[in-house]
Design goal:
- The structure holds 2 protein chains of 2 kinds.
- By secondary structure, chain A is mainly alpha-helical.
- In chain A, helix 11 crosses helix 18.
- Chain A folds into 2 domains: 173 residues, no CATH class; 200 residues, no CATH class.
- Chain A has 22 helices and no strands.
- Chain B is α/β, with parallel strands linked by helices.
- Chain B has 2 domains: 42 residues, no CATH class; 278 residues, no CATH class.
- Chain B is built from 13 helices and 11 strands.
- In chain B, strand 9, helix 11 and strand 10 form a beta-alpha-beta unit.
- Classes of the chains: A mainly alpha, B alpha/beta.
């Protein structure tokens, strides 16, 4: 059930919020019940698996906390291994078997049966949550949660269950038993939810249409203009889709009294790939930093080991996004640029030259690198990506069936792209989105501003709902009789 | 957990948000339907019953979501809002099957969702090979010969649609694309002339006559907001067909101008475009007239496969029996064809809903019992390459 669906917006969410507000003594159970229903809606078959891993991580956390060091280490290995097995088993078995099958066929050996394994929703998120929970307990950074129900609430909480941000237990441990859900915070949650919905529906969905159409074209029929348009639209789509969804999740979190961590900080305003990864999918990049890069040695063992660590982390980061060569290539591609930037930083002459490069050029460099990365990410195969790159380089001639840019990008698409650029340039203070800021006393003028902002939000909600409704309409011309 | 407290404004705003979210469910439960409803190319999804197996449990969420999408309260209001906003803000139309052109003209570009521009490509003749044209021409000949065996006079009229008639109103890139090809209707007629010269008098492609309309400030053959032509064109084309068939007018058929809503209404929620239309006064012309109702009791079992039907009968009973078989372009012509017939039967069948039994019954009623003096087949350019299906379906292969 996507947040930007009719069933969520007009059925699940109002019923859930009414129950949550009407039953203050049972809010934890309302969250659990709502979240289980939310998950079961998409994956009834895997609900048992989710619950099993909740119990397993909770039990291991308790044992781990009290175990002597040797046993604790074994329990940690067991817990992390189980979470990785869960992730690997469902996400990568099919991919690995397909590669093995291709290899065997290439050697003239009998084919290997490749089972089709449906992927449990949100598996990458809840596996990483489980790992961070156990590792944080082992590091004594957080106490294990003694209540299975409270732990289940953390693990299943629907706002972040299937698309993040990757919420570490220690980030909200203090709110599990003592949540502040005053009206100011609830209102802030509403504003964020609507802002995220509008990002997703009005910007991401609008540019998704040309992106999907262009990436579905036979590569031979691409011209340079259409290829660039497809890549730019996808670049905007993926950010506003993911950022919109995360903003909705953070808003829902505030309504429930939880502070979900921010996941994006104007990533396309970055000035280098290194800077980009401090701003993009921050809950994932910080997870890899804390639980993989630093344990691997980070940058503490010389430049070559640092480069190797970076490459390993970004290869895994790519694979985390999906089991395909394109994702692996995307991860390695970013890792390579991080290494290049780090290596350049180590050479004083290069670093000094880099510092003198005008800011717009640095932005342009970052945007080009990221844009090319998204082509790798979006393409069906590496070959497909190569053909899109070739078209972008002006080597695509198009064909008789090729349609011009004007067909794919009517005024609404250009408007969405323009709005996206403005939003990327607009410097917002993330501190405004915290519960503490929401509770700051206001003047009368502040009240008026708030009411006007809320009225604007209501209009955005209505417009987003209208656009969503349009997606359900399937008209027919032969209607007369 | 601290208690729920805060200033009144915050509570008011939260209340408004919750009311907004609950409105659709409220409207659905109370059957409050502002904004009416829309016809669609499928029945709206229904909520599934209580699941009786695990497979049904797994399917239930998707089915419930589909039912919610089709039936949520205020859907029509939101669809209209989307149409209005999109048009006002961007000049765009809320369906991929419509292409906004210049001078306010709207082009219906495809009969099916997911095949954008397919109709315009076909009408403009883009991508057609000589073999395609030969096959289409032979199909028209086959149809004329087959109907010629059961009726003394047969005429086929192929109608060029708006993309051909008003090419200069297409978006510039599409106009350029159309200009690279020969319009299908004319191209087919050209191939037909070369392959079947003896049958050529039985084929009419009235491009020039249709283009002439609207030149002197009068109504164009196809109103800017319509897919189909209007009565003005229907009246002229009926006269043209009658002249070609040698059918004299059996009396005057008065007509009046009305304002009619666009026939693309279902694609344009919230945008009720209107245009002037000429409608006949059959009673004033001495005709018993029945349209788009079950006008022929004998065809009742075929009714589910009939898109449109017209029966016009001269009270004096004199005049030829005319059978007008058509696609949706026949309707406005049928309005006026009664002026040249003692009895006119007009049918637009949905052949995909025909069964062998229904076809047998239609054949018996329309061919064996009605025994038409004239068979007139009217079809727009989007279907001309399949003209043979008219006779293949009704008469059998």
């Amino acid at each position: 059930m996507a947040f930007s669906s009719i069933i969520f917006l007009f059925y699940f969410l109002p019923l859930f919020l009414l129950a949550y507000l009407a039953l203050p003594a049972a809010r934890m159970w309302v969250i659990i019940a709502g979240s289980v229903l939310f998950y079961a809606w998409g994956e009834p078959f895997y609900l048992g698996l989710l619950l099993l891993f909740i119990v397993m991580n909770w039990w291991l956390g308790l044992r781990l906390e009290r175990a002597p060091p040797a046993l604790a280490r074994a329990l940690l290995v067991l817990g992390v291994g189980a979470n990785l097995l869960l992730l690997g088993g469902f996400k990568y078995t099919g991919f690995l078997l397909t590669q093995l099958d291709a290899l065997l066929r290439g050697l003239g050996l009998p084919a290997l049966p490749v089972p089709s394994i449906p992927l449990p929703l949100g598996i990458s998120f809840f596996a990483f949550q489980g790992i961070s929970y156990l590792m944080d307990i082992r590091r004594r950074e957080v106490a294990a949660q003694p209540s299975l129900a409270k732990f289940a609430m953390y693990k299943t909480m629907f706002p972040q269950l299937i698309a993040g941000p990757i919420l570490r237990y220690r980030q909200i441990a203090h709110e599990i038993g003592d949540r502040r859900i005053d009206p100011a915070r609830f209102r802030l949650g509403i504003e964020l939810f609507i802002a995220g919905l509008a990002q997703k529906v009005l910007i991401a969905n609008t540019v998704a249409l040309p992106a999907d159409q262009i990436f579905a074209l036979p590569p031979g029929s691409l011209t340079a203009a259409t290829a660039w348009l497809g890549a730019v639209c996808y670049m905007v789509q993926i950010f506003f889709d993911f950022s919109g969804y995360t903003t909705m999740a953070i808003g829902l979190g505030h309504m429930l009294g939880f502070s979900l961590p921010p996941n994006f900080n104007r990533p396309y305003a970055a000035r280098s790939v290194t800077d980009f990864w401090r701003r993009w999918h921050m809950s994932l990049s910080s997870w890899f930093r804390d639980y993989l890069y630093i344990p691997l040695g980070g940058n503490r063992h010389g430049p070559w080991r640092t480069y190797a660590n970076l490459l390993a982390v970004f290869a895994l980061c790519g694979l985390w996004h999906g089991a395909a060569w394109t994702f692996l290539a995307w991860g390695l591609y970013h890792g390579l640029f991080l290494i290049l930037e780090r290596a350049a930083g180590h050479r004083p002459a290069l670093a000094a030259w880099g510092a003198r490069v005008p800011l717009p050029l640095r932005h342009a460099y970052l945007l080009l690198v990221v844009l090319a990365g998204w082509v790798l990410f979006r393409a069906d195969t590496l070959g497909h990506a190569g053909q899109v790159f070739a078209a972008m380089a002006g080597l695509g001639t198009g064909g008789a069936e090729t349609l011009p840019v004007a067909f794919y990008a009517p005024a609404s698409v250009w408007t969405a792209l323009g709005a996206a650029v403005l939003m990327v340039l607009w410097k917002r203070d993330p501190a405004r989105w915290t519960a503490a800021a929401a509770g700051t006393p206001r003047s009368e003028r502040g009240d008026l501003r708030l009411a006007l902002r809320f009225a604007g939000g209501a209009v955005l909600l209505a417009v987003s709902a209208a656009v969503l409704a349009a997606g359900t309409h399937n008209p027919f011309i032969y209607f007369r009789f | 957990m601290r208690s729920w407290r805060g200033p009144k404004l915050e509570r008011l705003l939260i209340g408004i948000f919750l009311v907004l979210l609950c409105l659709p469910v409220f409207a659905q439960l109370t059957k409050w339907r502002p904004g009416g409803s829309f016809y669609e190319n499928r029945p709206p999804a229904s909520a599934p019953g209580w699941p009786r197996s695990w497979a049904e449990v797994e399917r239930a969420p998707a089915r419930l979501a589909a039912a919610a999408n089709d039936r949520f309260g205020l859907r029509a209001v939101l669809l209209r809002l989307n149409g209005k906003l999109r048009y006002a803000a961007f000049g765009e139309l809320p369906s991929e099957q419509l292409t906004p052109g210049r001078n306010g003209r709207i082009f219906f570009n495809s009969h099916h969702a997911g095949q954008a521009l397919s109709l315009i490509r076909e009408s403009c003749g883009i991508g057609l090979t000589p073999a395609d044209l030969d096959q289409g021409a032979d199909g028209i000949a086959e149809m004329l010969q087959a109907f010629g065996a059961v009726a003394p006079r047969v005429l086929y009229m192929g109608i060029p649609t708006a993309a051909v008639l008003y090419r200069d109103a297409l978006p510039a890139w599409l106009e350029h694309r159309c200009a690279t090809a020969q319009p299908l209707a004319e191209a087919l007629r050209g191939r037909f002339a070369a392959r079947w010269p003896a049958l050529l008098p039985q084929v009419v492609v009235p491009t020039a006559a249709l283009l002439e309309m609207g030149r002197d400030g009068g109504d164009p053959a196809i109103p800017p907001d319509n897919f189909h032509w209007e009565g003005q064109a229907g009246q002229r084309m009926a006269a043209l067909a009658a002249a070609r068939l040698g059918l004299p007018a059996l009396g005057p058929l008065p007509a009046r101008r009305v304002s009619r809503i666009t026939d693309l209404e279902q694609f344009l929620p919230g945008l009720p475009f209107r245009h002037p239309a000429l409608v006949p006064d059959p009673a004033g012309g001495g005709l018993e007239f029945c349209q788009n109702r079950p006008c022929l009791p004998a065809l009742a079992p075929v009714q589910p496969a009939i898109n449109e039907m017209t029966v016009a009968e001269r009270r004096s009973g004199e005049g030829p029996r005319v059978l007008l078989l058509s696609d949706s372009f026949g309707l406005r012509m049928a309005d006026f064809m009664g002026a040249y017939a003692g009895r006119l039967l007009h049918l637009n069948f949905a052949y995909d809903r025909m069964t062998p039994e229904r076809l047998r019954l239609a054949r018996r009623v329309l061919i064996e019992e009605f025994r038409p003096d004239v068979i007139l087949v009217v079809q727009h350019d989007g279907g001309m390459r399949g003209a043979a299906s008219f006779s293949r379906q009704l008469l059998g292969p």
